[in-house]
Amino acid sequence: MTALQLRFLLVPFLTSTMGAAQYLMQDAALLNYLDRRFLSLEKRLEKCNQDILEYVEEFRDFSKMTLSRLAGLNNHKAEVKSEVENLLTRIERAQRDIDYFGSARDSNTCIGVHEDLVKQQLSEAAEEKTKLKLTLNASCDQMLAGIKSLKIVKKTGDKHGSWMKDPGKKHAKIYLLSGSVNNVILEFANIMTFIESNPTLKARRVTLPFAWEGTGHIIYQGFLFYHRYGSLNEIIKFNIQRRNITDQMLLPGAGRIPVYQLSPSTKIDLAIDEQGLWAIHAEPETEGNIVITKINHITMAVEHTWDTSCNSKGAEAAFMICNTLYVVYNFPSGGTSRIQCVYDVLEAVSTHEIPVLHFPKRQGSHCTIHYNPKEKQLFAWGDGSQIIYKLHTRQKV
């Protein structure tokens, strides 16, 4: 009986022992498999590292070869430069010889050539003048005869700034641009809103992406045209309603010196008259004389440029009326502003035909004077005051 019980106990024990041995064999096989896989991965990583080392070595060889060739190119460049300089010297000698033989020719022939050249230049100048008269509306025949009265609309107190209406729009909005460097326009519904004691509370603020420089900006047909702060001569065209830049241009020759001696913050003064957009500036090459440029306000392209006889010394501002530049002069300490230089691009008016015109009933100075061709008035900024001047005009002779 005891033997039978022992037998029944040994059978389960042997069965469990055999199962455990089987599991051990399976684990050993799994470990062997994993070991082989790791060995394979290690071999691949080793090969990858070896390939990388080979690539690095090849790249170093390539860099050395490239640097060597660049050094050779520099040597060739020096040789070519020397040959070009030698060729230029020979060309200069040949040109001198040609000039010498040319001067030895019959003087009558030279005189005839020079006369033909002068005739050609006169013909081209007359043709250019005819084109300008067609481009610019010659029917705009009004000239300034006097400044009748002034009205001080408001006094903001800021020394520099400009204010204006848009002569290209039918609305009555007023725009205030305070300071010689700023990027915020204040837009008022009308002049009464602007005059109110707390106008900034009722103003629409328009922030520009780039600040302006000086006080020579202008608003025309819904766009602000201004000299970008920090640039030499970049003019930006900004859509006030959409609040984005639509175009820009570089004004050749401008931006190096102030356009007016008494308003040194303004390097480029933009103006509007019956013909559209103008730029007023000065250049060192003109010995400080003022230059005016007609700009197409749609394409922002330069249409024509004139060197005037009006000097920037003693000038504080200027404006355009019917193709004619009027320059305002004053004293450094301030006084009565006066117009004593006029330049008509079509040569219909000369300074000698207009007596010196004084601004009435006011002692001080202006940093900005803009003409509004729609209302035939001047919008000025003088000693912190916003002023309107009414004008008296007459027909050009």
Automatic annotation (TrEMBL):
Residues 1-21 form the signal peptide. Residues 139-395 form the Olfactomedin-like domain. Disulfide bonds join C140-C322. Keywords: Coiled coil, Disulfide bond, Secreted, Signal. Residues 70-97 form a coiled coil. InterPro entries: Olfac-like_dom (IPR003112), Olfactomedin-like_domain (IPR050605). GO terms for cellular component: extracellular space. GO terms for biological process: signal transduction. It comes from the Eukaryota. It is found in: Secreted. This is OLFL1 protein. It comes from Psilopogon haemacephalus.
